[in-house]
Amino acid sequence: MNLLENLKWRYATKKFDSSKKVNESDLKKLKEAIQLSASSFGLQLYKVLIIESDQIKEKLKPASWEQTQITEASHIFIFCNYTKVIDKNIDDYINLKSKSLNIGTKDLEGYSDFMKNSIGALSEDMQKVWTAKQTYIAMGNLLTACAELKIDACPMEGFDIEKYNDILALDSKDLSAAVITAVGYRSGEDATANAPKIRKSIDDLFEII
Amino acid sequence: MNLLENLKWRYATKKFDSSKKVNESDLKKLKEAIQLSASSFGLQLYKVLIIESDQIKEKLKPASWEQTQITEASHIFIFCNYTKVIDKNIDDYINLKSKSLNIGTKDLEGYSDFMKNSIGALSEDMQKVWTAKQTYIAMGNLLTACAELKIDACPMEGFDIEKYNDILALDSKDLSAAVITAVGYRSGEDATANAPKIRKSIDDLFEII
């Protein structure tokens, strides 16, 4: 099975070869894997910033506990969730759906109201948590896409969200950095590359009922 | 690219053919895809219940807004996050790592303390949110694994967490249902099967910096 082979191949890369860059054609595929990710109601309530700029990477590094992946990796993917859900988010989706399915927005009004009511019932804090969770599905797909293309990646939560939001001016856009991934090619000196994968046993992880 | 083809093939299945069951060999692969999922620090702070019992499915259905996927799908995967992180969770991981790498736990003490301090600094509410987020990576991998095996799936958040925790007696195990996925085979009558996928454009979703 391709997926299993790819998941076994990947590892959280600690040291990247900064001379190697992910090419445009592969970047396009990585973006498409993220774009195709499932999300609650299909709303995709996040934006993904892809950092190529060395200058921005240098600014992000101290906000990432000085982890060297930030400056040595080819690209940093920053998954940013919307911090609140407004009617416009739902209306945008309904318009997209209406166009794709070639039906009037009037016919989608019931579904639109259902979403608005369901999401409106959540506190702003709960909305924020909910949109952040969705980014983890997309981030997981990025890891899988990288592995299929034999691109290395390191998913990271070890960064200062407030500092990231500040550096990237996310607050004013109602966005917040949720999780990031450094993407590029492993350095020959990455000692962790050949370490065995540590995973709970199937018996520990699952229960059939 | 296999992943992109598989992601395009899949859709959130609304109607399953209840006569078709996922076989043991495929189930094993689905479990392995979940097991291989990335997680923060590699801790995998969740458990996955796989519901085969028709009786339990019947109990879960009213707690899932009567959605028919619950009783018609072959298996329901319930991703349950740990609601608090205790030292034992970290110690278990350290023991696993020590055995896998054939090094003494003493040599991993620094890393163990680092994890304990980082996670200990989070409030219980934040710990719960954090462990729940990790389940979304695993759930995403389940969707991808299903697609590769041409098994249908429906990821679902539309269920009553408290009722699930009650029915499955999760509270006493410090677990909580985070997200679920119905897995099986689409019914020929599922009208949504051939609907075009609705996704934001690449330009809307990404920003290169």
Give a quick summary of the entry.
Chain A is α+β, with helices and mostly antiparallel strands and 209 residues long.
What multimeric state do the chains show?
homodimer
Order of helices and strands of chain A: HHEHHEHHHEHEHE
Query: Structural class, judged by helices and strands of chain A?
Result: alpha+beta
Inertia-based shape of chain A? globular
Gyration radius over CA of chain A: 19 Å
Low-confidence stretches of chain A: none
CATH topology of chain A: NADH Oxidase
Assign the CATH architecture of chain A: 3-Layer(aba) Sandwich
* CATH homologous superfamily classification of chain A: NADH Oxidase
The order of strands across the largest sheet of chain A is 1-2-4-3
Kindly report the greatest chain-chain contact and the residue count on each side.
Answer: A-B, 65 and 65 residues
* Proportion of beta-strand residues of chain A: 15-25%
Q: What's the pLDDT, averaged over the residues of chain A?
A: 96
The major sheet of chain A is characterized as:
4 strands, antiparallel
